Amino acid sequence: MAKIGTIELGSFPLLLAPMEDVSDPPFRALCKEHGADVVYTEFISSEGLIRDAAKSVMKLDIYDKERPVGIQIFGAVLDSMLRSVEIVEASGPDFIDINFGCPVKKVVSKGAGAGILKDIDLMVSLTAAMVKHTKLPITVKTRLGWDQDSIKIVEVAERLQDAGCQALSIHGRTRAQMYKGDADWAPISAVKNNARMHIPIFGNGDVNSPEKAMEMRDNFGLDGAMIGRASIGYPWFFREVKHFFKTGEHLAPPTIQERVTAAQRHLEMAIEWKGEKLGVFETRRHYTNYFKGIPDFKEYRTKMVSSDDAESVFETFQEVLEKFNDYQFV
After folding, report:
1. Domains along the chain?
2. What is the chain's pLDDT, residue by residue, as a tens digit (330 residues)?
3. I need a surface site. Which of 9, 87, 92, 244 has the fewest CB within 10 A?
4. Beta pairing partners, 69
């Protein structure tokens, strides 16, 4: 039974990864409905929070139906991180997650995200200070190391646990790899199987099929799987994994009706939360996956991703339903 602090997550929970411009409240709600056990906000800049930057503050919006939910923040300056913890606390998350793994250059260049993997002492001291500054559980998401020659994740995990970190999610790539090559779960397993470790260890990276999730559970012995890219535009991934765990069989893929309904609800919730302009724009990235595999679909996809008003997108959804209603996914 995995736990973050006193929050029970069940046996081998499935976690929706924090993803910039993806894991917002509408998408988190859909993933939760389809079996995600834990969800995270998009990562939020500590500097943006203390400057009261509108985009950062908006990411603090969480809702009871999402719980347990973690708010993820990133930064490398102690004072800013501590002040942002106070701001985050006011939003009432179940825990606060620190991003020590984002590989994007604009984050890394400031020493934040995966940039901090070059200074493990700072990584540990920031974590310890944040643990002391809040009553909420502090968790960490990170990578194996800066590059292949600097992987010390077993030692790093011990030090983070000693600093008070209550769960650790590890992406099975280095910063140098970005998202290329295959994720290596063996070092994550080495962390989990270290006799000194007692906090949950969640694996991340390349969990893109029910079989992979089962492999992470049964062969690598991890406490849960964090799902990222496989869920974009496909919130059904969580229920498919759980069905496979339970029966050993693949669940039938969602029908056209289910896909259209999910896309409509996603857009409706996005508009309600962000307004029409942003809602229409920020749901576009999901449409390719919502309707992936349908032949001769380019015309409809183009309409969905190029339209600036919601009404025409909703009309396109209905056209898709009428034209492809009999299409059988395999």
Report:
1. 2-247 (3.20.20.70), 256-324 (1.10.1200.80)
2. 899 999 999 999 999 999 988 999 999 999 999 999 999 999 999 999 989 888 888 899 999 899 999 999 999 999 999 999 999 999 999 999 999 988 888 899 888 998 999 999 999 999 999 999 999 999 999 999 998 888 999 999 999 999 999 999 999 999 989 989 999 999 999 999 999 999 999 999 999 999 999 999 999 999 999 999 999 999 999 999 999 999 999 999 999 999 999 999 999 999 999 899 999 998 998 998 899 989 989 999 999 999 999 999 999 999 999 999 888 887
3. 92
4. 39
Q: Which of 81, 102, 267, 320 does the annotation list as catalytic?
A: 102
Is residue 14 within 8 Å of residue 222, measured between CB atoms?
Answer: no
H or E element at residue 287: helix 276-290
Please tell me the distance from the alpha carbon of residue 152 to that of residue 145, in angstroms, as a whole number.
7
8 Å CB contact between 96 and 70: yes
For residue 197, give every residue at least 6 positions away whose Cβ sits within 8 Å of its Cβ, in sequence order, or none. Answer: 157, 158, 161, 191
Rounded to the nearest 10°, the torsion over CA 38, 41, 45, 46 is: -60
The answer to whether the predicted template modeling score (pTM) of the entire model surpasses 0.70 is: yes
165 is catalytic: no
Sign of CA dihedral 278, 282, 284, 290: negative
CA angle 310, 300, 281 (to 5 degrees): 35
309 alpha-carbon distance from chain centroid? 28
Closest by CA position to 270, among listed 282, 257, 286, 288: 282
Cβ contact 71:41 at 8 Å: yes
